[in-house]
Amino acid sequence: MITELRLSAFGTHRAAVFPVGPVTLFAGPSGSGKSQVLAAYEALAALGSGVTLDEAFPDARARIPDRAVPDAQRRRGFRLGCTVDGPAGPVRLDLAVQAEPCVRIVGERLSQGGQILLATALRDPGRRSVQAAWLTGGSVGVTRAPLPDDRLGTALLPLRVAGSTAGQRQVLAAAEQVVVALRSVFPCDPRPDGMRAPVPPGEGRLLRDCSNLADVLRRTRHECGTRHALLTEAARTGCAGTVAGLDVRAPEGGAPVTAVLDRGPGRPATELARLGAGELRFLALALVLLTGPGVLAMEPAAELPSARQVLTVLADGFDRGLDRRQSAELLRLALLSCGRGHIRLAAAVGEATADTARRLPGVAVVDLGA
């Protein structure tokens, strides 16, 4: 699990260090950098999954501070990093990214207990590669080889390191720990306008925008009875009116699936299309907190069994469109789920939700406006 996030010359952040716990909420006024913290977290997660730097940072230039002065080669960029805790102990990953004149990784360091396990550096700006050196041990000491300058070197190490020496095995264990933590991240941003229409039946894995919520409810209703019951209980708090259950209408022959709120005997059910935006966001976020990787559209690391992986949910605007009652119920669900140790939440919230969270044991509120 990621226990610390570091940002330097990244948007509004200067040499910032953010501890990350089971439930971490970022609060502060508009422009304080709440979304930037989560964007950095998401970009690191994407790089850990093997995407290119351009894909992880489609707006890399926008992350450069306005007053950042270019060097003699007219280069500007930013730094970010994280600490990952696990069986290998705390492992640090630090990354220097050049955003101008072109986007590339100019330096990467993987370290443990002060020992450098992997270091890369840009030696020749004319080549699209960095010179890498990783710990080998034995008579060789270190191995040197070029690596691409648009991908995370740590994620490539399992393909390059044989693991035949103690030093190589130490490098592999640290790299695997970081990659598993980064890949076990699910960014979630429910969009109510896309959640109202019936959806074609599919594999029942929730998308990032939660537009296929009805299809996922169809699956959880039949396969995850306990979690579906918890979601129904939460809906009684987060949705207006009487809620007797969450149901779906799934005609045969592959017709679109419609989710409904069961209003009880003698009362017509309410389709999701008739719910308010806050109610839809509430249901989607509650579902994410109460499920796991198997119900979310993500590819968790295959190196370890799911029982040893911790899913981190990223939610920018966690309480957007919600009232105090809905926000408080989501915080309760977050503490319930995260307390079991298999789910963590990192989210940006407004001041009202932050004020409520400050009084809750187990919730860490990071005040960026302080």
- Please state the overall shape, judged from the principal axes of the Cα atoms: globular
Instruction: List low-confidence stretches.
Output: none
Rg result: 22 Å
Give the termini separation.
Answer: 27 Å
| Number of E-type strands | 16
Question: What does the average pLDDT come to?
Answer: 92
Class computed from helices, strands and strand pairing: alpha+beta
Largest sheet: 8 strands, antiparallel
User: How helix-rich are the residues, as a percent range?
Assistant: 25-40%
Instruction: Spell the H/E element sequence.
Output: EEEHHEEEEEEHHEHHEEEHEHEHE
Question: Oligomeric state of the chains?
Answer: single chain
Number of alpha- plus pi-helical segments: 9
Arrangement of strands in the largest sheet: 2-1-4-5-6-7-8-9
Content of β-strand: 25-35%
Task: Detail the topology: elements first, then pairings.
Elements: E1 2-8, E2 16-19, E3 23-27, H1 34-48, H2 53-56, E4 76-84, E5 91-100, E6 104-112, E7 115-121, E8 129-137, E9 141-148, H3 153-160, H4 166-183, E10 185-187, H5 213-223, H6 225-238, E11 245-249, E12 258-262, E13 270-271, H7 277-290, E14 311-315, H8 324-338, E15 343-348, H9 351-357, E16 364-367
Parallel strand pairs: 3-15, 3-16, 10-14, 14-15
Antiparallel strand pairs: 1-2, 1-4, 4-5, 5-6, 6-7, 7-8, 8-9, 11-12, 12-13
Helix pairs in contact: 1-4, 3-4, 5-6, 6-7, 7-8, 8-9
